[in-house]
Amino acid sequence: METVLVAAAVFVLSLLGGFGPRVFASRLSEQRLHDITGVSAGLLLASALLVVIPEGFDLATAGHEHGFSDEPVVLGAAILAGFALMLVLEGFGVGHDIHEEHHSHVEGHGHGHVHHPSSMGVVAAGLSVHAMADGLAIGAAALSGEAAFGVLVAVAVVIHRVPAAFSLGLFALHETVDRTRVALGIIAFSLATPAAILLTYLALDEASERWIALALLFSAGTFVYVATVDTLPAIHNPATGRRSVAMVVLGAVIFAAVFIMIDQTLDFSHGH
Question: pTM of the full predicted structure?
């Protein structure tokens, strides 16, 4: 039941983020959107490095007193596979890096873009594929046996989904006048993560801890990729670089503080 509620919450928040630009676009500055993206990327990166990867390795070693049930290189390869898949998809145009383009629209409606997705459908498809990877992480986390861990991962993913959904809605607002296509694209994106959450939960419900661990490590690789790609353009820009780095660090510090608080409050020991 908790997994269904999380999936529903992700769907609702993604919808709100996707349709939000029709209300808030004129009030949200380029700098504010950069800041939100940076903080959410920091949360996602910290969740991968502080929680998801350690939990994945812990699950992989559960019940094995003399070491890993898999070779360490296999566990590392799962992380690499997640990162590499996102990289390949981006290379084939099924990506999600449209934040920079949105910003210029908000400020001056300019069109001097380095990367310009061809259509609303392509953008929605790319974002939806990335959203499915988020759903894999939440679904696998729900099966890990650690309630606090599952909550931390879900919160990090949900927070990151909102600016991603907002970016999609902002792109749609300026690139197309077909409201039906806009609505369908946003709904498809909003459904991608909840669907992946439920499918992962059902598919891995009877799976061994080894497969749950590999799914977690794979999703951690996608987290690292998405968090990096979301922030590098702003970091490489001399006008926004230092502030963007500060926002990423802030997001990571916030996540670490919440993690420590939960660790001190609840029993976060790994008794699988």
Answer: 0.78
